[in-house]
Design a protein that fits this description.
heterodimer, A: alpha+beta, Ubiquitin Conjugating Enzyme, B: about 1100 residues, six-stranded antiparallel beta sheet, about 40% helix
Chain lengths: ~160, ~1100
């Protein structure tokens, strides 16, 4: 529903969630450029991650499509930036919104779930040697998600 | 030969007053003998002998030549010549006297003889000198110098020879060359010596055994039936090739009307042996007998209806003539250009190869018949009449002024009004299009141009009946009235009102009445126009005899019920003359209508409905409309009577009036025969006889001779029908009407899961029964069953609730009897399919209501219910609030859409808010009205009855509500039960203070209709107004230009019907762009109906031919539906 989407977009811009920005693309109002700040006390702290979000035609009956553009070392996010998150899949509900989806993504950064992995190698590492994995994630954040970096570096 | 000689073709040459021409001729001998004389050894010898014995030299020779030229060379013996010379040689006008005497004798002889070509025609081959200067006396050419190639020139001369020879003083007989056929025959008999070139041959018909003479042969071969005969020897020479023989053979039956004159073209200087080729030229002549005594086609046509035996004879004759015209390649002249004559044989050949194209083409023909022949002409030619401002308030458009002129002219009122002498001729110029104009072959043209009148350059032939005429066959219609068939939206009503206001009573009759009074009161008044008395008086006598009940002041307008009030108010708007009154006759509001309209207080206009006419027709009263003869009857939406077997149609046709008009935008709805009722109403003799109509329209059309059928219709209607379309340009090249654009878009929707479930199950049933029907071949016997199936499927597309209603308002099933309506209910899907069991008990409802009250507290004036899906706060209206079992609130649309989506994807249906499993059967609603004391109460809601279309419609309506305040919207459906549902659903889903909904369908009585339309018309910026309109009740006539948006909820079989409906808003007076949305369910019967519509549109409205074809089409349609 067009009006719903406009309504949401307006709210996203006027009343942003702390640590999250989402801006619709000029040419395509269904396409959003998103940034999420790495949550504190997580390996991603101080990182700013670029994402893209696309609202399918059936939105809000169907979940939005979200993908990381910035390289990230996370058991639930694969090399292509795809995210394994229940609300984006089976647990989607039309009562959820863009902002709630993005909050869920931010929460996923805070608490990785290696038991339901998408990036198998990362998950394995995360289970076997959690410390090395966290260090690796920090290093990646340092490398790819530095706020000074103007250009996002996709895979 | 000179022009004067050519004049001999005309009978008048031989009349006394034409003598100077003969005299001139006599003094200028321009003629010589040709080579034929050399062959005629005996006769030359005779003449030589006579000449020498007499010895009076040149003058006598000249006399012979002149005379022979008049009457034919071989026709007269030398002794006769001599005696004539003695009697008349020295007299001044001797030649003509001699000729006269000769022909008188000849006539007597001829009567005793059998009609035999070779016996009576004697040809003269004379050099045609028509190109020479007339005063060039001495240009006598030797016969040998005549070039062989000049055969064509000889036609005139031979023709002259023929004509003079065949001339009969009694019957003014003549014949005229129309063309020749060149053919190569073959000899069957050897000849002893070469037959001379140019020899006159003849045809001899041999009748095969067992076949009665005069009947056309069905057998393939004709060539053995027709023999080429050497006239001089009177022996058979050979035969003609089959293709020529086929043309010639039937013509021999009509040798007194069409004479065929074969000549030998070449003999190769040899005698013929069996099997040699014979080169023959066959000159064809029309004799005056073909033109008959009466040149008035219509009179003869009428007679032919009565005599059927003669009819078939006539048909064969027509076919034979058509074939001949084809063979000699004579082209009809149309205006300045020639065009192919319609040939029956050609058409038949084409049909098999491209039947479809043929049909489509001819549909176009019909269209062009409407658009070009008629109307464009009228825009140029017709003068404009502006009605008197003192009596008529409205301004007419230019074309309306033209139609006023035309209508007045048709009523023979125009002359009364027109101050200028400019005559507009309506009848005069329109040639009966059954007839074609032909020019006599040009070889004789030189001669004709100067001396002859224009007319005689041409002759006219009716190739359908084989009739000929020298005079232009003009259609004369004596009826007062006609058909105003302007396209919808061009203001036919106003045009008709202008006519009524301008000629509101029978002035002639009034004069008679006045005069009658005068006579009885002995010249007490001087009103009477003395110049008209005689004519008036006779007319008066006539009318008085039968018109005791003549309502000469009253025009009766018959309209569909929905238009009754519209007409009345239009009249009030247009009329300025307080003396003119308009009254509605409906529901017995006038006791004795017959007495009323004849009485002194008769209103100028009475408006009534077809229904009233029909019901009075059934009764026998002395006070009804049938007991008066009206001054004028106008049928609005005249196609109402198109089916002549209906009571309405019979009733309307039985009404009497001195002037009759039909207004219709669609004179043809389905088939050509639709026109017949109109023709019958207008009493257009002779076409109003059904036999005549069938013979010339229905049967040719069924046979696939579309051209002929259309020609006839054109002929019938041209003088009495005026049609202009919106696209036409006026004299200045401006379009007649410029309407704002019209956007019609089809919105394809998908079934919800529950709808689809029901639909698929019903589709399966329907398919099975169609398959069964097709397999057994009795598809159409079960036609009603199948219609019911289809109807059910269409209903599912609209709303599942419709299945529980009786299909009383469906047009397809109107005539179903009680038995089949039982089938209708039997065909419903299992009830469980439609309505799954509601799983919420009343106890549970009570508990839930209590909890709900705890959560939401006491009702507040502004509700705070939020939809978790669209995040709307304060869902409007309250009835749209849908509550799950877990007591979360949603908009109804959002929730049902969600449930559908999940079901379609086979995903679990959980509450979007708390993920508790929910069921569509367990959706709750707030009970309304909310009692402040008890607070919120929940009731269960069968959400699966929500129709996809209504949902889609609601989305549109909400959008309009937000963006265009005060908009007026029309929603069409053909199911009035669907309109009921729409009414309740829309009013429950749209906030009440912003939307007003009106419903207009066939169940309303007249007063209610008027009221509703009046209210709908009032503009109110504070709310949107919705008119639910039944396609059947409101599809025609209504003027709803106040609205510019329309929604068509369901498709109708015929696209024309939908166009009509759309034209309710897209017509004169519309200011805005018209937007129409047509809702169609994807992959359903509706989508297929669209295809059928497209097909119909492509074919035009005239697709159906005969009964068999219709059945075939129906089966096709049904098959298409179930593909």
């Amino acid at each position: 529903m067009q009006s719903l989407q406009t309504q949401e977009t307006e709210r996203l811009v006027s009343d942003p969630v702390p640590g999250i920005t989402a801006e619709p693309h000029d040419d395509n109002l269904r396409y959003f450029q998103v940034t999420i700040e790495g949550p504190q006390q997580s390996p991603y702290e101080n990182g700013i991650f670029q994402l893209e979000l696309f609202l399918p035609d059936d939105y809000p009956m169907e979940a939005p499509k979200v993908r990381f553009l910035t390289k990230i070392y996370h058991p639930n996010i694969d090399r292509l930036g795809r995210i394994c998150l229940d609300v984006l899949k089976n647990n989607w509900s039309p009562a959820l919104q863009i902002r709630t989806v993005l909050l869920s993504v931010q929460a996923l950064l805070a608490s990785p779930n290696p038991n339901d992995p998408l990036a198998n190698d990362v998950a394995e590492e995360w289970i076997k040697h959690e410390d090395t994995a966290i260090a690796e994630a920090k290093q990646w954040t340092e490398l790819y998600a530095k706020p000074t970096q103007s250009e996002p570096q996709p895979e | 030969m000179t022009q004067e000689q050519n004049a001999a073709e005309k009978p008048r040459f031989f009349r006394d007053e034409e003598e100077p021409i003969v005299h001139l001729q006599e003094s200028r001998p321009l003629f010589v003998q040709d080579e034929e004389d050399d062959e005629d050894v005996d006769r030359s010898g005779d003449r030589d002998a006579v000449q020498s014995s007499d010895g009076s030299g040149d003058s006598r020779e000249r006399f012979y030549e002149s005379l022979e030229d008049l009457i034919g060379k071989n026709a007269i013996s030398s002794t006769q010549l001599l005696s004539m010379w003695h009697s008349y040689g020295k007299v001044e006008n001797g030649i003509s006297i001699a000729a006269n005497e000769y022909f008188e004798k000849e006539e007597a002889l001829r009567v005793s003889k059998t009609t035999h070509n070779s016996g009576r025609t004697a040809d003269v081959e004379v050099i045609d000198l028509s190109d020479e200067e007339p005063d060039d006396d001495l240009s006598i050419l030797p016969s040998s110098s005549e070039p062989p190639a000049s055969l064509s020139n000889k036609r005139t001369s031979s023709q002259a020879g023929l004509s003079s020879n065949e001339y009969s003083a009694e019957t003014d007989q003549w014949s005229r060359f129309i063309g020749s056929i060149h053919a190569i025959g073959f000899t069957t008999r050897p000849t002893v010596k070469p037959v001379p070139v140019g020899s006159r041959l003849g045809f001899k018909k041999s009748v095969p055994k067992g076949v009665p003479a005069g009947k056309p042969l069905q057998s393939q071969h004709c060539s053995h039936l027709i023999r080429l005969v050497d006239v001089a020897q009177n022996r058979e020479l050979g035969r003609m090739p089959e293709e020529i023989a086929r043309i010639l053979y039937p013509l021999l039956n009509y040798s007194d009307e069409i004479s065929l004159q074969p000549f030998l073209l070449s003999n190769n200087d040899k005698r013929f042996s069996v099997g040699d080729d014979i080169y023959v030229r066959i000159d064809c002549y029309l004799t005056s007998r073909a033109f008959g005594k009466s040149d008035d086609g219509s009179v003869r046509n009428k007679a032919s209806v009565i005599n059927h035996a003669m009819e078939s004879h006539q048909l064969h004759r027509a076919e034979a003539i058509m074939a001949l015209f084809d063979a000699i390649n004579i082209k009809a002249v149309y205006g300045d250009t020639t065009y192919e004559i319609p040939s029956g044989t050609q058409q038949e050949n084409n049909v098999s190869s491209s039947q479809f194209q043929e049909e489509a083409l001819n549909v176009n023909q019909l269209k062009s018949f409407y658009r070009i022949t008629q109307s464009a002409e009228s825009l140029r030619k017709l003068p404009e009449t502006t009605p008197n401002e003192a009596i008529f308030k409205l301004d007419l458009r230019r074309y309306q002024k033209q139609s006023l002129s035309w209508m007045l002219k048709r009523e023979f009122e125009y002359e009364h009004l027109s101050k200028e002498a400019t005559e507009i001729s309506i009848d005069g110029n329109s040639m009966n299009p059954l007839w074609k104009k032909f020019s006599w072959p040009s070889s004789s043209k030189h001669a004709l141009v100067q001396e002859e009148e224009e007319d005689s350059k041409f002759f006219y032939a009716n190739l359908y009946t084989g009739e000929f005429s020298t005079e232009k066959p003009v259609i004369k219609t004596m009826i007062n009235g006609g058909i105003l068939a302007d396209e919808m939206g061009l203001g036919k009503t106003i045009s008709a009102l202008a006519l009524i206001c301008t000629a509101d009573y029978d002035k002639d009759y009034q004069k008679k009445v006045d005069k009658a009074k005068n006579v009885s009161v002995n010249n007490s008044s001087s009103k009477v126009d003395s110049s008209r008395t005689i004519q008036d008086f006779t007319q008066f006598n006539l009318s008085q005899q039968k018109h005791d009940n003549y309502a000469y002041k009253t025009t009766l307008i018959v309209v569909p019920m929905s238009l009754l009030n519209q007409w009345h108010s239009e009249f009030e708007k247009a009329n300025r003359d307080p003396k003119k009154r308009c009254e509605i006759y409906y529901g017995n509001n006038i006791k004795d209508i017959a007495a009323y309209v004849v009485g002194p207080n008769a209103p100028s206009v009475i408006i009534t409905t077809y229904g009233v006419i029909q019901s009075e027709y059934s009764r026998t009263t002395t006070s009804g409309v049938f007991n008066a003869i009206f001054f004028r009857i106008i049928l609005d939406e005249g196609h109402t009577i198109r089916n002549r077997s209906t009571r309405t149609s019979k009733a309307v046709i039985a009404m009497r009036s001195s002037r009759k008009w039909i207004l219709t935008g669609t004179p043809i709805i389905n088939r050509l025969d639709d026109l017949f009722s109109l023709v019958q109403f207008l009493n257009l003799e002779p076409w109003s006889h059904i036999n005549y109509w069938k013979r010339y329209v229905s049967i040719p059309f069924e046979k696939g001779q579309y051209g002929q059928a259309f020609d006839v219709i054109n002929a019938v209607l041209e003088p009495v029908l005026l049609r202009r379309t919106k696209n036409m340009k006026d004299v200045d090249g401006k379009p007649l009407v410029s309407l704002p654009p019209k956007e019609v878009c089809v919105e394809k929707l998908q079934f919800s899961t529950s709808e689809n479930r029901v639909y698929q199950s019903m589709l399966k049933d329907a398919e099975n029964s169609v398959k069964e029907g097709l397999a057994k071949g009795d598809l159409l016997r079960n036609y009603t069953n199948i219609l019911v199936h289809i109807l059910r499927l269409r209903q599912v597309c609209c709303h599942l609730d419709l299945l529980q209603k009786k299909p009383e308002d469906d047009l397809d099933l109107e005539d179903l009897d009680g038995k089949s309506s039982q089938n209708v209910s039997a065909m419903l899907p299992a009830r469980s399919l439609i309505s799954p069991k509601n799983s919420i008990s009343q106890d549970k409802l009570n508990t839930l209501s209590a909890t709900f009250r705890e959560i939401h507290g006491t009702p507040t004036p502004v509700n705070t219910f939020e939809c978790a899906i669209c995040t709307t706060e304060g869902i409007e209206p309250l009835s749209a609030v849908s509550i799950t079992e877990c007591l979360h609130t949603f908009c109804e649309l959002c929730l049902t859409e969600y449930i559908d989506f999940q079901q379609k994807k086979n995903l679990p249906v959980n509450c979007p808010y708390c993920r508790e499993p929910i069921s569509e059967a367990c959706i709750l609603k707030l009970k309304e009205p909310i009692e402040p004391k008890t607070g919120y109460e929940l009731i269960s809601f069968d959400s699966h009855f929500q129709s996809t279309k209504i949902k889609a419609l609601l989305i549109h309506l909400k959008q309009i509500q937000e963006t265009i305040p005060g908009e007026q919207i029309i929603i069409f459906s053909q199911f009035s039960s669907f309109l009921d549902i729409l009414q309740s659903e829309l009013s429950s889903h749209l906030s009440r203070n912003q939307v007003v909904i009106y419903k207009f369908d066939g169940r309303l009585d007249m007063r209610e209709r008027a009221k509703i339309l009046e209210r709908f018309h009032e503009k109110d910026l504070s709310c949107i107004k919705i008119l639910l309109l039944s396609l059947k009740a409101g599809g025609v006539g209504l003027n709803l230009t106040c609205a510019s948006r329309a929604f068509m909820m369901d498709p109708w079989w015929s696209p024309g019907m939908e166009d009509q409906a759309i034209d309710r808003i897209h017509r004169i007076g519309q200011q805005k762009t018209v937007k129409v949305v047509r809702f169609i369910i994807e992959n359903s019967v509706e989508e297929k109906m669209l295809k059928i519509q497209e097909k119909k549109r492509m074919l035009g409205d005239v697709v159906e031919g005969d009964e068999a074809e219709k059945r075939h089409k129906r089966i096709e349609e049904i098959q298409m539906l179930f593909q």
